[in-house]
Specification:
By secondary structure, the chain is α/β, with parallel strands linked by helices. It is 44% helix and 15% strand. The structure holds 1,3-dihydroxyacetonephosphate (13P) and iron/sulfur cluster. The site of 1,3-dihydroxyacetonephosphate has 11 residues, from loops. 1,3-dihydroxyacetonephosphate (13P) binds next to loops. It catalyses: iminosuccinate + dihydroxyacetone phosphate = quinolinate + phosphate + 2 H2O + H(+).
């Protein structure tokens, strides 16, 4: 495997030869973000995947994101540098579990966070991402209860924002749950001129302290546009790479986690992707995301329902 600059050149060459597009999430390692054709949050990346003319989609993110790309654009080859790039939310929720919840609440609508696998999507009425969740939930008929899965923190936050009662699946993101409210309160006390911004996957106690709550793209826009010069960032540390580019003169402080030996929160799933694995997956066009057609069509329906509502 080539190294350094040669590795970058080799990836770009493969991209050209294979008419590939590299899509990367903001939590990816910085060098992968730098080489990507499109960088975005989960909704932006799903849209890019749906509309691309490339023959091969190289998805630098986690498995559920690459799977969503395949669901939306089945004629393209979709590859992911490391198939072990999972997600604690997706791993903790199953289609069978949702079916059981529906049996218990037959009148409920199931709104599911995009951080889930295809079987779970297939059992859902509508999908949401963190950037359109409020709009989607507001649009659901008021006379039906809502089951929200799998992220209880995002669900609780949405229920408060929209005033809709929700039956919550008991799932969470291991990365955002690691933030320590006590240590962040101390960071705010030590930096009275800073604002705390947080992803809604964070726990309620952290969200209560936050000056702004939003998806990865919303957090980026906020830091760029707001007058404040100092921010404490409660989301995965990979986002700092793009934030520093967009707001080079602002001070960005990662929010602290419970583990005192760490000074930021990393998603070890996202970080399974490396430049070397990216090169190999483009060269061999593996590992490829494949999905049974019947399941794909079932999973597509609630994703399309979401896209129709959040144009
Ligand atoms: P965004 O849609 O805000 O990018 O979030 C994806 C994610 O996995 C957050 O942990
Ligand atoms: Fe999943 Fe959390 Fe990693 Fe996002 S940060 S991919 S929700 S484990």
């Amino acid at each position: 495997i080539p190294q350094g600059e040669e590795l970058v050149k080799a990836i770009l060459k493969l991209k050209e030869e294979k008419n590939a597009v590299i899509l990367a999430h903001y939590y990816q390692p910085g060098e992968i973000q730098d080489i990507a054709d499109f960088l975005g949050d989960s909704l932006q990346l799903a849209r890019q995947a749906k509309d691309t003319n490339a023959d091969m989609i190289v998805f630098c993110g986690v498995h559920f994101m690459a799977e969503a790309a395949k669901i939306l654009n089945p004629t393209k080859k979709v590859v992911l540098p490391d198939t072990m790039a999972g997600c604690s939310l997706a791993d903790g929720c199953s289609g069978e579990g949702l079916r059981k919840m529906r049996e218990q609440h037959p009148n409920a609508l199931i709104a599911t966070y995009i951080n889930c696998n295809a079987e779970t999507k297939a059992e859902s009425d509508i999908i949401v991402t963190s950037s359109n969740a409020e709009t989607v939930i507001e649009a659901l008929p008021k006379d039906r209860p809502i089951i929200f899965a799998p992220d209880k923190n995002l669900g609780r936050y949405l229920s408060k924002k929209t005033g809709r009662d929700m039956i919550l699946w008991d799932g969470s993101c291991v990365v955002h749950e690691a933030f320590s409210m006590e240590r962040i309160a101390q960071q705010l006390a030590d930096n009275p001129d800073a604002k705390l911004i947080a992803h809604p996957e964070s726990e309620e106690a952290v969200l209560k302290l936050a000056h702004f709550i939003g998806s990865t793209s919303a957090l980026l826009n906020y830091v760029e546009k707001d007058d404040c010069q100092k921010f404490i960032i409660a989301t995965e540390e990979g986002i700092l790479h793009e934030m520093r580019k967009r707001a080079p003169h602002k001070e960005l402080i990662p929010a602290l986690v419970f583990d005192e030996s760490c000074n930021c929160s990393e998603c070890f799933y996202m970080k399974r992707n490396t430049m070397e694995k990216l090169y190999l997956c483009m060269k061999y066009e593996l590992p490829e995301i494949l999905i049974d057609e019947e399941l794909r069509l079932k999973a597509l329906k609630p994703i399309e329902a979401m896209l129709d509502l959040s144009k």
